[in-house]
Write a structure and sequence with these properties.
single chain; about 400 residues; mainly beta; 17-stranded antiparallel sheet; two-stranded antiparallel ribbon; 19 strands; about 5% helix; globular
């Protein structure tokens, strides 16, 4: 309870500071560039407490009536788990929404627990009954991670549909496994065992590929939608001649829908999210496999630490009820949510939907810019088997 009260206080402080310090640059009547230079004080299970700055920028590249709001969110953070996190994620809509540019750039010096593959791994480390000689349950990893994702999409006629290409690069290096438990030291780590079985290095590997993308962008404001929907189909090819350690291909499916419950208060709504990530051909290294919490903004799977579940295929769904907390103002809002994830693993012979990992929780919203709907979000999520976590971010979860 003390932790919740402290974080609520921090939100209110950030709200007051941001209201005073927001920067607005208006070169013309359309392209209003606004920056919220937020100090970042957050928390989640994978990183612990985070401190730094998290600037958020919004602007328009054309007539507001026919051009979506562009946005960029940055993070320059240090955590209580001795991690450094630098990232920039953006959705840029050119004039009249003729093109969309989607960027996801990251440099992490970080650590994370991993629990083995599939959706049935325990919290506490032990020997895997399905893989004698291999750890199952929590195992710690230190690693560095460089990501460069950039996608360019062209609007199809006057429709809400876009087609485009992207380049996606992930480089994992300086990977070290260790365990904080008194169990037999001769056991092999899940990460190392998987990579060795498939011929990957255990200390460094690369996934480099091209994506072929189709998008339907029908949301009113991407960072905090009140209505309509969004869909993405992305087929990724990772050939070895582009730098991947092994050739592979994956399919990503993403759909989101927003149902208004009040015409007068559009913030009163139900939001639905369905997400799937599937290995189609070849092999991926361990950290390149689909995993919970690894969507673009790292918002999925509230109730679990990022990377808690991992496998060759992943299916995820979430429902969220959003509502205002004030009668005539939009500053404060709330949410309750329910999610579920399932993973398959060829290694452990677990099939998709054999195990479901549910999560649920509630949250507080503080809208610091009504026009652009820039919002600070604070959520507490609960998973099964004692998993839980606090999540403090900027903008809606999805």
């Amino acid at each position: 309870m003390k932790r919740i009260l402290l974080l609520v206080s921090l939100i209110l402080i950030a709200f007051s500071a941001s209201s005073q310090d927001s920067i607005s640059y208006q070169p013309n009547k359309f392209n209003q560039f606004k920056v919220v230079p937020l100090p970042a004080i957050g928390s989640n299970p994978a990183n612990g407490w985070l401190f730094g700055i998290a600037p958020s920028a919004t602007w328009r590249m054309g007539d507001p009536s026919i051009t979506h709001l562009s946005n960029l969110v940055g993070n320059f953070l240090y955590t209580t788990k001795k991690q450094w996190i630098f990232s920039s994620r953006s959705n840029i809509f050119l004039n009249e929404d003729s093109w969309i540019l989607v960027g996801d750039w990251r440099y992490f010096i970080t650590s994370q627990p991993t629990f083995g593959l599939g959706g049935s791994s325990p919290n506490e480390p032990m020997e895997n009954p399905n893989q004698p000689g291999v750890y199952w349950g929590e195992q710690q990893m230190d690693y560095s991670w460089v990501r460069f994702y950039e996608t360019v999409l062209k609007r199809v006629g006057d429709s809400k549909f876009y087609l485009g290409l992207g380049y996606h690069l992930d480089v994992y290096s300086k990977i070290e496994n260790f365990i904080d438990s008194e169990i037999p030291s001769e056991l092999n780590f899940s990460h190392d065992h998987y990579n060795q079985q498939l011929g990957f290095n255990t200390d460094k590997y690369t996934v480099s590929g091209l994506t072929f993308n189709a998008i339907m962008e029908n949301r009113d404001v991407a960072v905090s939608p009140y209505e309509k929907n969004f869909a993405l189909i992305s087929y990724k090819v990772n050939p070895s001649f582009l730098g991947s350690d092994q050739s592979s291909s994956t399919l990503l499916l993403d759909y989101r829908h927003y149902f208004n419950l009040s015409e007068k208060r559009k913030r009163h709504l139900i939001a639905l999210w369905g997400f799937g990530n599937f290995l189609v051909s070849g092999n991926l290294p361990y950290m390149g496999l689909p995993s919970i919490g690894y969507d673009m903004f790292g918002r999925g799977g509230r109730g679990y630490a990022q990377g808690r579940f991992r496998g060759e295929s992943m299916a995820y769904s979430e429902a969220e009820y959003r509502f205002p907390l004030q009668k005539n103002k939009e500053t404060f809002g709330g949410t309750v949510f329910l999610n579920a994830a399932s993973f398959s693993s060829r290694t452990t012979k677990e099939k998709l939907f054999t195990n479901l990992n549910p999560g649920y929780g509630l949250g507080l919203r503080v809208m610091i810019n009504k026009e652009n709907r820039t919002t600070i979000t604070a959520d507490y999520g609960f998973g099964q088997n004692g998993n839980s976590g606090f999540y403090l971010n900027i903008n809606e979860t999805f």
